[in-house]
Amino acid sequence: MVKAERFVEKAIQEIKEQVGDGKAIIALSGGVDSSVCAVLAYRAIGDKLIPVFVDTGLMRAGEPERVKEIFGYMNLKFVDAREEFFSALKGVVDPEEKRKVIGELFVRVFEKVAEEEKADYLIQGTIYPDIIESQGGIKSHHNVGGFPTHYTFKGVIEPLRELYKDEVREVARYIGLPEEISERMPFPGPGLAVRVLGEVTPEKVEVVRKANRIVEEELKDIPKWQAFAAVIGRATGVKGDERVYGYIVSIRAVESRDAMTAEPLRLDYEILRKIMRRITEEIPEVVRVVYDITPKPPATIEYE
């Protein structure tokens, strides 16, 4: 387990030394990884840090507003890139292609802000399991294997590259981040795009965003590593007296220590029924809800 005090001191010093007299830019999504990185970097270089929230249209419900509330003291820059991301993802169905498209566009958006602000370095919240999965060819991460090979930054700084998720949480608690961040469930770098199987559209993303909110609300008091919803396809259903062709939503809830392996939670049947009822009633486009009981391995935690 990481010794938080020693790690924080070392990370702050490393960031100071690497950035020097330059400026650094960071993607601040509100997740625990990017939040810890942002706080460490801010303590290291102060106003030489340029924290940016990119609204990709692929974030959790209420994410932009909450990030503003918590990190407004850092003089956040907000970029509305929703149209750009949905346009770039049009027609893309392969999971790896999705991640690479998102990763490249994500960095291009950053480059634009970095050039405007004359930033030299990119700070990322890459953690150890991200690197292992990317190097092993399991799946690329938009801040590892999906990172474009041609970028204009002098360097990339990854303060958390040797930590597992539970160690990142320990650091988050130590530096005083609120519990809603330090204990927040993991969220994929490419956002809800990898919780939509097949082509990503605004409609599908809105469906999965609402379904994720319901799952998080209903399972908030149950110990877990991660719980979420994914749109995995379409199926025939009945609404009223009419046949409809709607979405299939899969619920995934797992326990794990470090995301390298995971086991599905044995959720009470009545809890599952309540989630199903809420999803099908509150999201009319959904006609079927299933619960995924596959461990990792053979599955990964996320679907793509």
UniProtKB/TrEMBL annotation:
Keyword match Lyase: no
Pfam families to which the protein is assigned, alphabetical: GMP_synt_C, NAD_synthase
**Catalytic reactions of this protein:** XMP + L-glutamine + ATP + H2O = GMP + L-glutamate + AMP + diphosphate + 2 H(+)
Q: In which pathway does it act?
A: Purine metabolism; GMP biosynthesis; GMP from XMP (L-Gln route): step 1/1
User: At the top level of its lineage, which domain of life is listed?
Assistant: Archaea
Q: CDD domains given for it?
A: GMP_synthase_C
Which keywords does this chain's UniProt record carry? ATP-binding, GMP biosynthesis, Ligase, Nucleotide-binding, Purine biosynthesis
* SUPFAM superfamilies found in the cross-reference section: Adenine nucleotide alpha hydrolases-like, GMP synthetase C-terminal dimerisation domain
Q: Where is the signal peptide?
A: none
This enzyme's EC code(s): 6.3.5.2
**GO molecular function annotations of the record:** ATP binding; GMP synthase activity
The entry's ATP-binding residues are 29-35
Q: Which InterPro entries match?
A: GMP_synth_C (IPR001674), GMP_synthase_B (IPR026598), GMPS_ATP_PPase_dom (IPR025777), NAD/GMP_synthase (IPR022310), Rossmann-like_a/b/a_fold (IPR014729)
Q: Which HAMAP family does the UniProt record give?
A: GMP_synthase_B
Q: How does it assemble?
A: Heterodimer composed of a glutamine amidotransferase subunit (A) and a GMP-binding subunit (B).
Instruction: Relate the protein's function as given in its record.
Output: Catalyzes the synthesis of GMP from XMP.
| Protein name stated in the entry | GMP synthase [glutamine-hydrolyzing] subunit B
Organism of provenance = Geoglobus acetivorans
